[in-house]
Design brief:
The complex is a heterodimer. In chain A, 63% of the residues lie in helices and 9% in strands. Chain A has 24 helices and 10 strands. A 5-stranded mixed beta sheet of chain A has the order 2-1-3-10-4, sandwiched between helices. A 3-stranded antiparallel beta sheet of chain A has the order 8-5-9, with helices on both faces. Chain A has a two-stranded parallel ribbon with strand order 6-7. Chain B is α/β, with parallel strands linked by helices. Chain B has a domain of 67 residues. Helix content of chain B is 37%, strand content 26%. Chain B has a 6-stranded mixed beta sheet, with helices on both faces. A 4-stranded antiparallel beta sheet of chain B has the order 2-1-4-5, with helices on one face. The longest helix of chain B has 14 residues. The chains are: A alpha/beta, B alpha/beta. The interface between A and B is medium-sized, with 19 and 22 residues.
């Protein structure tokens, strides 16, 4: 509790800004949805033939997963508030169109006939009879849309549009409960507030709407006055990266990097960089998208990102039982560098080749491929985490072990995350899996990151010693590549600006300002 | 004032009105009397163009109604409905003021007129003007419905089963009130009813309708003395009232 209050106090400026942005995103999108949805609802109430198509279309919009929708919108609207508001607008449409339609269809036919018979024009019938009588139902739709959108607007943080999602997703990524609550509680309060205000509006009669409308416009104009400043270069970082010492905090402290940042989800980050909506992003240095989008990773010359060199971690009893296992796994040591691993990931993720085919192709080229001996000596159980790189590595190990020894491999691939893999290993459910030095250091050993541990060799030696002593597990020699955090830029842009390292980037930005 | 000639109307191939003609002079009161489904309401609705006829013409003050803009035509013909058709979101006073406001009367004039009408119909400004329709009894609602139809002092009054939703006691009383109303006496009235007593008490002419046609037309006395056929005779004696 105390922690939470301290967090609120230290982040009050940011909290206010995020809340205002959140209100802005919600109100603007709902206002646009009202402007489009109410006339559409009126239209389909008059022309029944259009009702099915229109409601169907709006319904389909509702079912598109939000992150996918945001991804579609980047090439059209870029990143930032525009695609966020457009996506929120689409989500708000269905309840508003449907309730307008239902509300107007529900007006007593006798009343409508009386209005016509008294000599009202079509628009007088609409504005004096149909709309006022349908208003409670229409407002219920607007209420639904507003409450939905307060929730969905948290996803705006995925595409650099800000809002309370920045705290929520940052807090989840960093396992910081105060941060999650600092985003979630105001979001919940906003939802309750909108719901309450609109429930009051439902009870007002038509003549009060002018005032309610004017008040809404004022709030709206006010909340609209929070534009984001844009510099020459723009960086997009994941919520997790924003809050990490081996991330944005370290970049500022160690490099003195000064660059405007926006928070963005890693699923759309690379695409946004490729589309030139961003100039710098945080990412993983062997991601296949680096190749797909022609990106380069900047050299971390001051070593703020801990090393994440991959190597097999093996149970000692397995190595003793099968002395030939260690040398077979060791065949891959030092064989794959960053750009090769990136290329292999790219072939699976973008060229849609199977991990097995990619693994075999690589080993053939390296002269390491041997057909399986179909050995019967024993079974080695292999685990992997659930991402492409691990799948490829495991296929390679399977070929190497079965081709060079009389052992066979039983794969238990797809073990959720680090914790599941590690627990399976210590509990004798698997014999080995590929792990990364940085993960061993920070996640498993939970070791504070000293400057010494930022170096490749010292980090590897440290985890090897500690795993041996604490868990009786053996780290074999690293495969070579380093799948660490990295800053990335478009290759061509970086070349033009003469940027190869993070220090270059810092200098470039400093000279730009002068 | 109103002259209909050779009106025809079908809905989805089913004939509703066939060759209906009549003439209502200024101040005349025509009752269209018939069973349900006889085409009398369709006939009435063709007079103010709620329905456009398939064939035939309606003249209003000698002029073809098709030459009017429908809204303008309807504002000169007060309309009273069986289910009252009051706006539930308007007060009594606001309901009565609808047509005057469409005609851009000024506020004091609307207020004077509303108060006057409420008074004539046995309602009071203080007690009823600010109530909403659902707070009134059926009889009171129908009085407000009539006040609304009369508000802008239209020359013509079209009434569709105006007493149809009322219980027999209220029905007789309201009918009597309408009859004694000065405003009502000066109007040209076309009224649809299936109740022979309505027709005999309020009408100066009665048109008996069956299967979309007017079977016989005449004053109450003529019809009673010389019914054209057994159907008319039976109807006038109330024997087929509910059939």
């Amino acid at each position: 509790m105390k922690e939470f209050l301290q967090f609120l106090e230290s982040q009050s400026g940011k909290l206010l800004e995020q809340t205002l942005t959140h209100i802005h995103l919600t109100l603007l999108s709902v206002a646009l949805a009202i402007l489009a949805g109410v006339p559409l609802g009126i239209l389909i109430a008059r022309k029944q033939k259009l009702a099915g198509i229109t409601l169907g279309f709006a319904g389909v919009m509702q079912t598109i997963p939000s992150i996918a929708l945001l991804g579609f919108l980047i090439p059209l609207l870029g990143i930032g508030p525009k695609p966020a508001i457009f996506a929120l607008f689409l989500y708000a449409l269905l309840p508003i169109i449907r309730n307008t339609y239902t509300g107007i269809r529900g007006v007593d036919a006798t009343v409508r006939e009386a209005a016509v018979a008294m000599g009202m024009t079509r628009s007088q019938v609409l504005f004096k009879a149909e709309l006022p009588l349908a208003m409670p139902v229409i407002l219920a739709g607007i209420r639904t849309a507003a409450v939905i959108n307060v929730g969905v607007a948290t996803l705006a943080a995925y595409i650099a549009a800000g809002g309370l999602g920045e705290f929520i997703f940052g807090g989840i990524a960093l396992n910081n409960t105060s941060m999650i609550l600092a985003g979630a509680i105001p979001a919940a309060l906003l939802a309750i507030m909108f719901d309450f205000l609109l429930s009051r509006a439902q009870q007002l009669s038509m003549r009060h709407f002018r005032w309610a409308g004017a008040a809404a416009l004022i709030v709206f104009a006010f909340s609209a006055m929070t534009p984001a400043a844009k510099g020459k270069l723009l960086a997009g970082f994941t919520p997790e990266f924003m809050g990490r010492e081996d991330g944005w905090l370290g970049l500022k402290r160690v490099y003195g990097l000064k660059i405007p940042t926006v928070v963005i989800n890693d699923a759309v980050m690379y695409q946004a960089l490729h589309e030139e909506k961003l100039d710098v992003v945080s990412g993983y240095s062997t991601d296949g998208r680096i190749r797909a989008y022609h990106l380069i990773t900047l050299d971390d010359d001051q070593l703020i990102f801990p090393p994440y060199h991959a190597a097999p971690v093996v149970r000692k009893d397995a190595l003793e039982r099968f002395p030939e296992l260690g040398p077979a796994l060791g065949l891959l040591a030092g064989r794959i560098n960053d750009s090769v691993m990136t290329y292999l990931n790219y072939r699976v993720d973008y060229l849609k080749e199977s991990p097995a085919a990619v693994a075999r192709g690589f080993l053939e080229k390296e002269g390491l491929f041997k057909p399986s001996r179909n050995g019967k000596k024993g079974v080695v159980r292999m685990g992997s985490k659930i991402f492409t790189e691990q799948y490829i590595l495991c296929e390679m190990y399977k070929i190497l072990v079965e081709g060079n020894t009389e052992l066979s491999i039983s794969s238990k691939t797809g073990l959720g995350g680090t914790k599941i893999c590690f627990d399976a290993l210590t509990n004798d459910q698997i014999d080995f899996y590929p792990e990364y030095t940085g993960t061993g250091l920070l996640v498993i050993l939970q070791e504070p990151l000293t400057d010494n541990l930022r170096h490749k060799d010292s980090a590897f030696n440290f985890v090897r010693r500690q795993f041996d002593q604490k868990y009786g597990l053996q780290w074999l020699q690293p495969i070579g590549f380093n799948n660490a955090y990295a800053l990335m830029m478009r290759e061509e842009a970086a070349r033009k600006m003469g940027i190869r390292s993070i220090s270059d980037l810092t200098r470039f930005l400093d000279t730009q300002k002068n | 004032m109103i002259e209909a000639s050779q009106l025809n109307k079908s809905f989805d191939g089913r004939v509703a009105v066939q060759g209906v003609s009549f003439r209502v002079p200024e101040g005349g009161r025509l009752m269209l009397l018939g069973t349900s489904g006889s085409g009398k309401t369709t006939t009435l609705r063709m007079l103010n163009r709620l329905i456009d006829p398939d064939g035939g013409t309606v003249l209003f003050r000698g002029q073809d109604t098709r030459t009017f803009r429908p809204e303008i035509l309807r504002r000169q013909m007060g309309y009273v409905m069986q289910q009252y058709g009051l706006f539930p979101h308007y007060t009594v006073a606001e309901n009565i003021a609808i047509v005057p406001r469409l005609l851009h009367w000024d506020k004091p004039r609307i207020r004077r007129r509303t108060e006057d009408l409420l008074h004539q119909l046995g309602l009071s400004w203080d007690a009823h003007a600010h109530q909403y329709p659902h707070q009134l009894s059926g009889g009171q609602q129908q009085r407000v419905g009539l006040a609304r139809a009369l508000a802008a002092d239209p020359p013509v009054l079209l009434m569709d089963e105006p007493f149809g939703a009322l219980d027999p006691v209220t029905r007789t009383r309201i009918r009597q009130e309408f009859l004694e109303l000065d405003e009502f006496k000066s109007k040209t009235v076309v009224m649809v009813t299936h109740d022979i007593r309505d027709a005999l008490e309020l009408g100066d002419h009665i048109g008996i309708m069956d299967k979309g046609r007017i079977i016989q037309m005449g004053t109450p006395g003529e019809l009673q003395q010389n019914p054209a056929n057994d159907f008319v005779a039976a109807f006038l004696h109330g024997q087929t009232d509910a059939s």
